[in-house]
Amino acid sequence: MSELLKITLPDGSVREVAPGSTPADIAAAIGPGLAKAALAAKVDGELVDLSRPFTADAALALVTAKDEAEALELARHDFAHILAEAVQALFPGTQITFGPSTDDGFYYDFAPAERPFTEEDLPAIEAQMRKIIGANKPLRREEWSREQLISRWKQQGESFKAEWAAELPGDEPLTVYWSGDDWLDMCRGPHLPSTGKLDPNAFKLTRVSGAYWRGDQNNAMLSRIYGTGWLNKKQLDAHMTRLEEAAKRDHRKLGNEMDLFHLQAEAHGSVFWHPKGYLIWRELEAYMRRAIDGAGYREVKTPQVMDARQWEQSGHWGKYRENMFVIPDEVPNVDDEGPVISGEADWMALKPMNCPAHVLIFRQGLKSYRDLPMRLYENGCCHRNEPHGALHGLMRVRQFTQDDAHIFCREDQIVDEVQAFCELADRVYKHFGFTYSIKLALRPEKRFGTEEMWDMAESELRAAVVRAGLATEEYGWEELPGEGAFYAPKLEWHLTDAIGRTWQVGTIQSDRVLPERLDANYVGEDGEKHRPVMLHRAIFGSYERFIGILIEHFAGRLPVWLAPVQAVVATIVSDADDYASEALAKLKAAGIRAESDLRNEKINYKVREHSLQKVPYLLVVGKREAEEGTVAIRILGEQHQKVMPLDEAIVLLRGEGLAPDLK
User: Rounded to the nearest 5°, which phi and psi values hold at 342?
Assistant: First the structure.
């Protein structure tokens, strides 16, 4: 008789089971309620199917809907598979490719047999998905060889799947999942026990787009169907409400309505800032300069283009080249005949980040331990070669400007410097009304540096957050294994906006690798050379993205100090035109960004138009106001108005228009 296996449950109790028993068996033994609620299992910390047999003693935790993160990931993964099954049932001949879960749902890419899918197809696909869910089809895992997979996909006419299967390792079993007995997909899993574990009213297909096979624009164009998936209808309804609100707040829509910026194909991923939009930028830039000046930073400016050899030395050429714009170091051929570029020139690159250039500034002249910490700041314009399909308004661009700084410090200064940065970031985010959480992204699988370096860097960041009093549940403190940069762990600031979305913005990274690679050093108290530690840090992240976040967070109703136009003087009758012009001159003299509206239009029309432009204050003047030297102030979003002397209104607006750090 086989020796029984010992399975340890979260409460410390141990159950002895026969080899080949499964988590589902243990759930059933505990009780019918748990057997029904169980969705998957964690065996020694690994998420697996309930039907996966135990092969050795193990620690077991059963996953139910109460374990929301894992349960949502499972549900969304299954929704993606059911989407693929539904599409193939409705559109025979469609080839399937891949379909992962996403932050709020799932998608699947298809190669349609006849025509690309459209949003008109979605209701029928949703109905077929509900039919599959209602059938409660078991989801069954099998292990196949690579040859079996390739043969299966070729027989089914699935050329994309066959291509991918041919690249899978041939020396280890691969997994497929059956939905019932008539449909399968290759997948690592895990999955729910059956399709019926999903709520048929907890998903919605949202849109259709094009996508290149394997993300390469030289490959076939596929149809990508997106959906959102949840554990129940209440969660779905709440999400759809958030989406509706997000659509109203979309920075691209508001940016157009408010005449802030535009984007166009002639400059993919680069922003054309209009005067009003650039006013927001300038206010943010001035605010950040005051913040960094007060914190002891020195501002620098570095070149846009550097020799590829510099990027090779820093490690970016090998690790990051696919995201860089490279430039031949030669004069292009100006003749009509022949190639524009010879192909023989040395390569240069537009900088994707500022850090190597800041090291080069640090290296100029001999540095002493007394010179440290040295805090170098740059509003640094960078370029990254993002795929066209990944670009998204201000949120994902190719040209962007970072509020970037690098702190060169001694080992004994690291925790103090990181703590000071945490406190600076806290002040900044609170000035904008954001709450936030802090995450520590730990060493990735592919990285530079020794284990000792990484141990030290991670512990220093952790210690600084603890000393700043931010490593608490209130600040959402969490550690993220494997998510650090290739050269350093990092702290991340995740802002929460007005409708509950989170945005990863600020970072600080403790880096011992780049100073080593670029030979940065200082003379210590002992007279010997030492490597500085380099802290990479940003608060906004990039001006473009931060402005996009602000627009959506405030739904365009920016704080008065950031509003491109802070006040408009609008006339009721033409008799007040001269007084309106006089009032406008006084407002501008007081440093208030103001305009006048003297058009021969009804005042309600003017109010509505300037409300759409999100102007914080409308100063309405008519014959009586002109005679009395007053204005009727209407505040954006409020129905009533208040009459006050013009001079009093100017004092009010000047106070409201001050940046929060100046109040």
Answer: -70, -30
Closest CA to 571 of 627, 631, 530, 522: 631
β-pairing verdict for 594-597 and 567-571? parallel
Query: What is the CB-side half-sphere exposure of residue 565 using CA atoms within 13 A?
Result: 23
Residue 569 and residue 597: Cα distance in Å, rounded?
Answer: 6
Q: 305-307 and 221-229 as β-strands: parallel, antiparallel, unpaired?
A: unpaired
Catalytic residue among 536, 537, 593, 606: 536
> pTM (2 decimals)?
0.81
Q: Cα dihedral angle (460, 462, 468, 474), rounded to 10 degrees?
A: 170
Could you count the other beta carbons within 10 Å of the beta carbon of residue 530?
18
User: At how many degrees (to 10) do helices 646-656 and 577-589 cross?
Assistant: 40
169, 139 Cβ separation under 8 angstroms:
no
> Closest Cα partner for 443 from 504, 507, 511?
511
List 25, 49, 185, 404, catalytic entry: 404
Using one digit for the tens of pLDDT, what is the confidence trace for 156-167?
999 999 999 998
Tokens describing residue 10: 């979260």
Catalytic site includes residue 262: no
Coil, strand, or helix at residue 576?
helix
Token pair of 487, please? 């050269």
**Active-site choice (137, 316, 490, 593):** 490
For residue 355, indicate whether it is catalytic.
yes
Q: What is the DSSP letter of 432?
A: T
Q: Is 264 a catalytic residue?
A: no
Residue position matching structure tokens 């997909």: 185
- Which one of the listed residues 81, 161, 252, 384 is annotated catalytic? 384
In this structure, are residues 626 and 615 in contact, taking their beta carbons and an 8 Å threshold? no
Residues 6+ apart with CB under 8 A from 469: none
Cα 240 to Cα 244, 475, 569, distances in angstroms: 6, 27, 39
| Cβ pair 466, 415 in contact under 8 A | no
Which residues, 6 or more positions from 306, have their beta carbon under 8 angstroms from its beta carbon? 348, 349, 351, 356, 357
Which alpha helices (DSSP H) does 321-375 contain, by range?
Answer: 355-363
**Neighbour-count burial for 393-425, b at 16+ CB within 10 Å, e otherwise:** bbbbbbbbbbbbbbbbbbeebbbebbbbbbbbb
Sequence-distant (6+) residues with CB within 8 A of 391 are: 268, 269, 397, 398
Task: Read off φ and ψ for residue 543, nearest 5 degrees.
Answer: -60, -40
- 368 DSSP assignment: B
373 upstream amide cis, omega within 30 of 0: yes
> According to the model, what pLDDT value does residue 534 have?
94
pLDDT score recorded for residue 576 = 94
Q: Distance between CA 75 and CA 26 in Å, rounded?
A: 22
Report how far residue 335's alpha carbon sits from residue 333's, in angstroms, rounded to the nearest whole number.
Answer: 6
Name residues whose C-beta falls within 8 Å of residue 290's C-beta, 6 or more positions apart in sequence: 659, 661, 662
How confident is the model over 452-464, as pLDDT tens digits? 888 988 999 999 9
d(CA 236, CA 229): 7
In whole angstroms, what is the distance from residue 550 CA to residue 540 CA? 11
Active site residue 404: yes
CA 446, distance to chain mean position in Å, is: 22
The catalytic residue among 249, 375, 406, 553 is 406
CA distance 384 to 400: 8
The predicted-structure confidence for 509-522, as pLDDT tens digits, reads as follows: 988 889 999 999 99
Report whether 142 contacts 176 (CB < 8 A): yes
Which one is catalytic: 25, 76, 224, 355? 355
- To the query of whether residue 439 is one of the catalytic residues in this protein, the response is no
β-bridge pairing 40-43 and 14-17: unpaired
User: In terms of DSSP bridges, do strands 261-262 and 272-273 run parallel, antiparallel, or are they unpaired?
Assistant: antiparallel
Q: What 3-state class would DSSP assign to 144?
A: strand
